[in-house]
Write a structure and sequence with these properties.
There is one protein chain. This protein has 2 domains: about 260 residues, Aspartate Aminotransferase, domain 2 (3-Layer(aba) Sandwich), CATH 3.40.640.10; about 130 residues, Aspartate Aminotransferase, domain 1 (Alpha-Beta Complex). Helices cover about 40% and strands about 15% of the residues. The chain has a 7-stranded mixed sheet, sandwiched between helices. Strands 8-9-12-11-10 form a 5-stranded mixed sheet. β2, α5 and β3 form a beta-alpha-beta unit. α3 packs parallel to α12. About 50% of the residues are buried. The mean pLDDT is about 95.
Length: about 425
């Protein structure tokens, strides 16, 4: 099936149950087992089914199946937020004494999670140049467990050299994790380019209206073979798990990466997604491809206007031919479209704050991917926890403004920016 069809139909048979056209919300904490043997079989993986909503839920299961197909993956697992998706993806392979290699262009929350919080777990982060991966290979050692990057970064709006990153990772037997939140599955599928694991903050474009928090992790097919081939690096997938009756994940005929998250991390840490949020995300997913096309088309119009305005010092949007990531957008993304984020720089910090305060249609909000257009000053909000040196390395200036272009008429958005910049 094509993406438009997958987003509406995958994972749900409307002829089952009550035959509802809308996916039902299984708003329940727990499930009644047929008998004691049925309960034991579920916990022992002899049968598959719902056990407890922290681990599995029928509504969430449909979203997972739908998303896995949309990303071209073998399986997916929903979690409470995009941040928990990133944490689980890393915690699933790394432990104290290990290191991960992260992109130099990441969302501020991902930077603090992966360089500060995760350091308290004994996991070190090294930073590589995602634009060309020129220093990536030299950073890899025997304790490197993952390479993490964003396909389209927030708020720098830069596209990673995905092909080069994947080639280096495969050559060294290291897992790749790509955050595809901004590009979305509508424009880009990292797995099709060889990436192992994809994460999303589904709170953003998947939801599309800012009504639900969620995250998802998708794995490619064939991860069991990957873990066996690199058994020394990923020993915990090929050796018995003492916390689960000696289970060896690579011997289970189920997608290994998501299975271990479900049986270990969701079980023990419990950052699970609520059934109601799964239902809200399913509603958003049905229109994802349509919305992303509109976001992309409108963003290009707005970016062209900003590029022509003499009060704007620079514009970051990969849909512009003048942009450093333009060729990558044409190479990786469907029809060269570049989603709905724009960042631009003005004279200085005070000017940036004044423009934000003068905007009328644009709401001052730190979310992205909403149907409403949003404006924010990253240096004082989403990236405010970073030092001045970290801000520079992350490509965020004090004068940078980030826009998330919504579904309004772009003429009205340009008119609002015109008055705010005047």
């Amino acid at each position: 099936m094509q993406k438009d069809t997958i987003a509406i139909h995958a994972g749900y048979d409307k002829k089952e149950g009550w035959g509802t056209m809308s996916v039902p919300i299984a708003q329940t904490t727990a499930y009644a087992f047929r008998d004691a043997e049925h309960a034991a079989n579920l916990f022992g993986l002899k049968e598959l089914g719902s056990i407890y909503t922290r681990l599995t839920n029928p509504t969430t299961d449909i979203l997972e199946q739908r998303y896995a197909q949309l990303e071209g993956g073998a399986a997916a697992i929903c979690v409470a937020s995009g941040q928990s998706a990133i944490f689980y993806a890393i915690a699933n392979v790394a432990e104290a004494g290990d290191n991960i290699i992260i992109s130099d262009k990441l969302y501020g929350g991902a930077i603090t999670l992966l360089t500060h919080t995760i350091k308290r777990f004994g996991i070190k982060a090294k930073v590589f140049k995602s634009a060309d991966a020129s220093n990536l290979e030299e950073l890899i050692d025997d304790n490197t467990k993952a390479i993490f990057f964003e396909s389209l970064s927030n708020p720098q709006i830069a596209i990673a050299d995905i092909e080069a990153i994947v080639a280096i990772a495969k050559r060294n037997g290291v897992l790749t994790v790509c955050d595809n939140t901004v590009a979305t599955a509508a424009l880009f599928n990292p797995i099709a380019w060889g990436v192992d694991v994809v994460v999303h903050s589904t709170s953003k474009y998947t939801n599309g209206q800012g009504t639900a928090i969620g995250g998802i992790i998708v794995e490619r097919d064939g991860m069991a073979e990957f873990f066996k081939e690199n058994s020394k690096r990923y020993y915990h997938f090929v050796e018995p798990d003492e916390s689960y009756h000696g289970l060896v994940y690579t011997e289970v005929p189920l997608p290994n990466f998501c299975l271990r998250i479900r049986l270990n991390l969701l079980r023990d840490i419990g950052a699970s997604q609520s059934p109601l949020n799964s239902w809200l995300l399913l509603q958003g997913l049905e229109t994802l491809t349509l919305r992303v096309e509109k976001h992309s088309n409108s963003s290009l119009e707005v970016a062209k206007y900003l590029e022509s305005n003499p009060k704007v010092k620079s514009v970051n949007y990969p849909g512009l031919e003048s942009n450093a990531s333009y060729a990558k957008a044409q190479k990786y993304f469907k029809d060269g479209k570049a989603s709905g984020l724009i960042s631009f720089d003005v004279e200085d910090y005070d000017t940036a704050k004044a423009i934000i305060d003068k905007a009328k249609l644009f709401s001052v909000v730190v979310n992205i991917g909403d149907s409403k257009s949003l404006i924010v000053h990253p240096a004082s909000t989403t990236h405010s926890q970073l030092s001045e040196e970290e801000l520079i390395k992350a490509g965020v200036n004090p004068s940078t403004i980030r826009l998330s272009i919504g579904l309004e008429d772009p003429k009205d958005l340009i008119e609002d920016l015109e008055q705010a910049l005047s």
